[in-house]
Specification:
- There is one protein chain.
- It is built from five helices and eight strands, in the order E-H-E-E-H-E-H-E-E-E-H-E-H.
- The protein is α/β, with parallel strands linked by helices and 180 residues long.
- It has one domain: Isochorismatase-like (Rossmann fold, 3-Layer(aba) Sandwich).
- The strands form two sheets. Strands 3-2-1-4-5-8 form a six-stranded parallel beta sheet. It has a two-stranded antiparallel sheet with strand order 6-7.
- Helix 3 packs parallel to helix 4.
Length: 180
């Protein structure tokens, strides 16, 4: 099966200096960089997804530095950048068409945020019939609060990865993936 790498929303907004800093983002980006390098070296097509809101949006504002993809994982050469306005990278974008045009039959997903955009793209891809692998340590999220209960980022992330393994994806570490 032809593999494709989907890099979701590794944007400046998620850095400690951004408006929505994520727990573990630096480690996730470093790991993502290894995966992207491996993909480039082995001819696996890389698809970058970038979230963008309106120019006056509170985060990912069009034209802002926060909306830019982080330099450490920036697209090179002719790698496509899919700009999305919704959580799901397939919604109202040409991501599926680009994957199909490249002959991609199976995807590897990395990026941010585990509990939102990663969740949405993984479930949508699985529903479309793509076998999906998520590299958990190349993804990041943040603490969540619901009805006065704070769920630490590590637990939020673990719950999502467990749900993926239950029915949507194979979950591997970057080391497991690169050594396979």
């Amino acid at each position: 099966m032809t593999l494709g790498l989907v890099v979701v929303d590794l944007q400046n907004e998620y850095l400690p200096s951004g408006k929505l800093p994520l727990t573990g983002i630096d480690a996730a980006v470093a790991n993502a960089g290894q995966v992207i390098s491996h993909a480039r070296d082995t001819g696996i097509p890389v698809f970058h997804v970038r979230h963008e809101s309106d120019e006056n949006g509170p985060i990912f504002a069009k034209g802002s530095t926060g909306a830019d993809i982080q330099a450490a994982v920036a697209p090179k050469d002719d790698e496509p950048v899919i700009v999305k306005k919704h959580i799901n990278a397939f919604r109202e974008t040409d991501l599926k068409q680009q994957l199909d045009a490249a002959g991609v039959q199976e995807i590897v997903v990395i990026g941010a945020m585990s509990h939102m955009c990663i969740d949405a793209v993984v479930r949508a891809a699985a529903d479309m019939g793509y076998p999906v692998t998520v590299l958990d340590d190349a993804c990041a999220t943040l603490d969540l609060t619901f009805r006065g209960v704070t769920v630490p980022a590590a637990q939020t992330h673990a719950a999502l990865m467990a749900a993926f393994e239950f029915g949507y994806a194979t979950v591997r570490s970057v080391d497991e993936y690169l050594s396979a």
